[in-house]
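Table S2 (text version). Query chain:
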Amino acid sequence: MIRAVTFDFWDTLVSEDMGTMRRLQIDAWLEVLDAGGIEVQREELAQAFSENWLLFEEHWHANDQQWTPEDSTNHICALLGVRGDEVHDQLVDTFRRVGEAAPLVAAEGAAEVLGVLKDAGVALGIVCDVGLTGAVTLRQRLEWFGLLEFFDAWAFSDETGWFKPAPQAFAPALGGLGIDDPSEAAHVGDSKRTDVAGALALGMAAIRFAGFHDRVDGAGPEAPVVLTRFQDIPAALSI
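Corresponding structure-token output:
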């Protein structure tokens, strides 16, 4: 019997138009740099952002370090040969500002489905690998969508220090939901490598959500259940 369900955040509960946040981040950086009298070409900055994201992904896959907005700012400035001491804090803060302002969309029917699960007595949590938008901002976005109230526990990687599929990435959420036996819980996420592999290794039920992006070629095991409609989640869990 499923007593708890955890959800991934990005491309499961919430998604963005691909590339929108990157464009807004570059816009914000150019604004701060220009105000500080530092001239950088957009193409040069875009390349530095791309190289920084590749470094983030290296740490993400290795699960050896949380690559923070401050780390990113230091690395991008180094790539550009920019001493951004006077505008450093403003550059770091652009990641928060963009995270708050970027146009995002919640999964269709998310509030309805989460309500059904809660009404059935199922405890709900979030297990999220954080990129360059921190947990505080992601909770705020969930609140703006009217979704935060449904969740009883969460495990954001910038707070736990662990990315999925490591069991330590799931542990704080499962513990917060009162789950000692992972077989009593299910996880819903879009990634085979992180969501499906991590859940199955723990003995959780796993659902891969392909409603935003169907990553069929991703490394990792396939979930026993793949859904493109969020509304089908309760039935898939026999709830």
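Notes on Table S2: The longest helix spans residues 42-62. The chain has two domains: 4-17+104-236, 20-101.
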